[in-house]
Structure formats: C-alpha cells, structure tokens
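Schema walk-through. Below, the input block comes first and the output block second. Nothing else is stored per chain. Lengths vary across the set, and this one has 317 residues.
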Amino acid sequence: MLKLEYNEKVGRYLRLDDIETLGISTYTMLEQLMDQGDQNQALSLSDYYHKEMRIMHDILMTWAQDIIRFMVGRDTGADNEVAQTISTSICKAWCDFEFGIAPLNTLKKQIQANHTDEAKTALERLWLEFKIPHDVLVAWINEMLGYLAEKTEEQVLDSVLETHQSIWGDRYESWDKMIPWEKVALTVEGMRGHLSGAGRKGDVKVTEEHDRFIMAFDPCGTGGVMRRGDPETGRGPYSTDGMNKEPHEWTWGKTGVHWYCSHCAIAMEWLPGRRRGHPLRPLDHTLDHEAPCIWYVYKDETQTREYHYPRTGLIKP
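--- output ---
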C-alpha cells in the first residue's frame, strides 16, 4: 500500500509503503492512481516523483563536479578555489537546467482536468528528461575516474573520499536515528531514482529475512545498465576499459570492477567498516553482468553476517 509521509529524520516526504509495494516504481504508482481517478494522491505523488528523480540527478552532478575539481587540482596544481570555479563553470548547465519542471506542470494540469491519457504522456516526458542525462552522467563519471586511474588507481579512492561527505555523508546523516524500515525506504528511493529494473522506471524487488531486508536490482540503473546495456531501449553495454586492473580492498579484492561501481565498496563497506566497525549497507557484487545486484539492510547492523567483512579487509568484531 502506498504511504507517502513526511519523515522528520530526512526532513521531507518519503515513501514508507508496505513491503508489497515499496519496490514498485513511483512512475507505475502514479499511473495506477490516475487510472483510479485519485487526483489528490496523484498530485502529491507527482511532486514527490519529480523530487525523487531530481535528488539522484543532483547527486550525480555533485559527484561529477567534485571529480573535475579534484582532476584540475591534481593536473594543474591550481588551488581549490580556482579548481572549484572551473568545475562549477563546466557543470553549471547540468546543475541549473530545470529538468522535468515543464512536464511536471503539464502532468499536474492534466491530472486536475482528469485527462488521463494526456497526463500519462506528460509523465513519460518527465521520466525521459531525467533518464537520458542520467545514463550519460553515469558513463561520464566512469570515464573521469578511469582518467584518474591512469596515473595510479589509488587516485580513484582519493577522489571518492573527497566527495564522500557531500554525497553519501549528507544523504545518510540521519541513518543511525532511523528504524530499519526507514533505512530500506531511503535506499529503495535512491534506486527508484536511479531508474533500476528492466523497464528503467525504478522497479526494485524487496524481500525480508529474519535478520535483514534484501533489495535486488535487475539491473541496477547505474553501473548495471552501463555494464549490461539498457533493457528498455535495447542499447548495448557502454564500451569502456574504465575498470580496475589491480585488486584492492576497496574493490572487494577483485579486478575488472567498473570504476563507477567501486564507490559502492568504498562508501557502503570499506569506509564505514573502518569508521563504525561494520559495513553500512553491504552488497553482493558480482562480475556477472547479467546477474542482479543485491543489497542488504540489516535490522541490527552489529549482527551483519560475517561473510561481508573480509571482502573489504574488515574483521568482524
């Protein structure tokens, strides 16, 4: 059941549905509300859907801008202020452009007029305004990290650590105050906004075990689509050699990990493991590009299963 509620811990509205619907894309939930003629819920969910998509766009842009600043400082010796000015100028249009605003306004107008077909057309246009730049940004980030790695692969780690707070640190600031289901809701929201699933609308499979919740992305909308290709359009995998050649604790001890995907090991396992004593939100990364990506939220993080630890050089307390 859809439950769009204001959450004090994240300071905004968040979908806190039951497990049966949380992983259904907000796009699909909007279509269902329009078919049911539920105008009030559809209008509220329209605003939330745009926010869901914009949050992930802004995260990708912040990351890209931070990589460029890091790159300029490293390659030119420019001080941080100069490097920041350059990176801001390069990324300005990507940050300032009003992605989705016009189709959102049309969507809401058509919902109010009870014009379901026209509303669904506007919803698709809103989705496309984010989908196309989303996939370009993921590939761009992967290539920039690959450029950094040409000097030394440790530069990728250094770059991710420099941007960690502005992306993952801020997003998960209230993590320890949340109950497990709120953590799941925030996680699933992110991967809906990253356009996961075969239809690229943001579908996630959510299941529960006695000690943890499991989220499966088939494919993950970011690294998964880059590695596998886009099932919605039939576009093939992104052609790149941007992956690690040396094993690191921050790449799960593997080689052949796409640079974009390495941030999951760093931000969710390697770094929090060293700060907190256990991973924040571990996952089962696989080099099989056709396999789903599996993430976990543990009900008690101190009871995270032992097999998650050694992959990033951790020892279970």
